[in-house]
Write a structure and sequence with these properties.
By secondary structure, this protein is α/β, with parallel strands linked by helices. It contains 13 helices and eleven strands. The chain is globular, with a radius of gyration of 21 Å.
Length: 337
Amino acid sequence: MKAQLKPLSEQVIVITGASSGHGLETARRAAAAGARVVLIARDGDALARVRDQIQTTGGTAVTFVADVGQEEEVERAATFAIDHFGGFDTWVNNAGIGVYAAALETPTADHRQVFETNYWGVVYGSLAALRHLKEKPGGGALINVGSINSDMPSPVISSYTASKHAVKGFTDSLRLEMMAEGAPVSITLIKPGPVGTPFPQHGRNLTGYKAQLPPPLYAPSLVADAILDAAQHPRRSLTVGGVGKLQVLGAQLMPLLFDRVAQNMGVLLANPARPVPVSPGNLYAPDGKDGVTEGEQKGRPVSAFTATRTHPGIALGAVALAGAALGLAVRARGRKP
């Protein structure tokens, strides 16, 4: 049975990690489109500010403070959404944290904590969402936010990268099971490239150097648009940013060459020219820096690659124009004496 996905204006959307970055941007855009939004994050004060901003502009939003790494808290969040709105149509697992450090210098407790949020948070959210969506008339959408790091390695952020590989494996396997059951649920993996969110400022940084993301970066709005597209149209996966897609292809098609190039990427993630103190970040608790979508690095607001994925008509139109131009060129050459 196919999921019958509704327009945003008719949906209730649950978003984890909704107090910052593209989770916050998704919440704002969904509410502006008429969706009723359930905001989930650890920072209750930031959530309240976001809720008030959305309501001030005429949107509908409620909040639930929860650590997605705690299964019982995620279950309570799902129950809250069902009790408050009578159910939900889309669940977005977006919460994510990271550690900037060499793998050998990352405490095992930090490795585990990254997985508590990035992987187990997705597992707990997915299971809670599916219990509801499978039985709901028309079903709905489960959207898990991975990364291009789901498909390729990276130095300095090894625990984050490993967690995103795990998210991809879990999401793709879960999709197969739901297909076999004929469940009316669309399951999408969103894979952003580097995005200009506060992620580097939130990350626990043990390197002693300024944490950053490798350019080029994309704007949080592009990730939000991809998420909301998947909430309305069944998608298997969506990569945000053409440059990121090229990196993934390089890692998959030329792994030895990619390794030789990527081994030097550490300086693009921790800038040796900018020493900074060790920072705890928000790995174990909110750091008081929530409530904003953009970080210190700004991203480009347009990706032609992503636009062709979310709007196939654009791709068909471009192919048609290219074909017409090629035909005109051939005929012009044929008329030359």
